[in-house]
Amino acid sequence: MDIFETVRTLTQTPGPSGFERSVSKAAAELLRPLTDEVEIDPMGSVIGVRRCGLPNAKRILLDAHLDEVGMIVTGYDGAFLRFDQLGGIDPRVLVNREVLVLTQPPISGIIAAKQPEDPDKAAPMSDLRIDTGLPEGDVNRLIPIGTPVSYVQPQFSMGVGILAGKSMDDRACFALLLRALELMDPQKLDADVYVLGSVGEETDSRGAITAVHRIAPDYAVAVDVTFGKSPDCSGDDCFPLGENAIVGVGPNIANWMFRRMKEKAAQRQIPIQVEVMAGSSGTNGWDIQIQRSGIATAILSIPLRYMHTPVEVIHEKDLELSARLLAAFVEHIGKEGQ
Q1: Which of 118, 167, 261, 316 is least crowded, fewest Cβ atoms below 10 Å from its Cβ?
Q2: How would residue 116 be classed by pLDDT, with cut points 50, 70 and 90?
Q3: Domains in the chain, ordered, with CATH?
């Protein structure tokens, strides 16, 4: 598979948190050729399973969320729309941005800001409005309160192997899961592999929580983005692009799974970097771990620049390295897992 082409297919489909149906359908079609069964569950999450064929096999869940940060219409200001965020958005990235109001059919808009009282301070989200260019009567008639709103941003390349655009968090990681399925040796699978494209991670992780109760996995790996090194993120908690798979360690991660990740990386000569997660990982792994009677959980990440903006940046090599590591981790997990 061309992993960047898969990323493009997923990221150009609107799907803010709570309104993921279109992207779930697209993800299901991409997953179908690689699994034995695919369904969209009642929450809207996509679940695919590749069965190993062994009786009473263990189950391993691989999760990447499909929702993106977005906005929701909350009211009107004359011909303009008030809105709030779905997920965490810095209002500084919104002013003068093109957006798509997800009516049927969608309506294009521009985010405008009131004149700030202090020109040295960014306008809060409460002072931002969406301008659709429509007269007041049409705005009220065509755009109901509660309508979701998505970023508009064509993808573009930045140098060799680097792609920028919206909703890389976390659809690039769903593409990574598809690539890992391609790389798994069927002869080395001794557990049923469940792939989850979960909904709602940016707001409350409801898709992952409910899917875990449906699947009842023995093990889980949450695959998500972490902070890439950039002018706005240059500390020890930020990671270079294009160099390593990022493996989490901390209370959200089963110690034996962390050790296994490191061992498999060493065996396959896959470079890794360790991300210390001293508290919540900020991923679905935090909630997956404590469902049912407890799920042994690991976290695998790729670095991403400019998180939750319309121009998130990823590197193709990080996707490939992480997919290779994940495939190696899954093989023989039934025999070697604790």
Answers
A1: 118
A2: confident
A3: 3-68+166-336 (3.40.630.10), 71-151 (2.40.30.40)
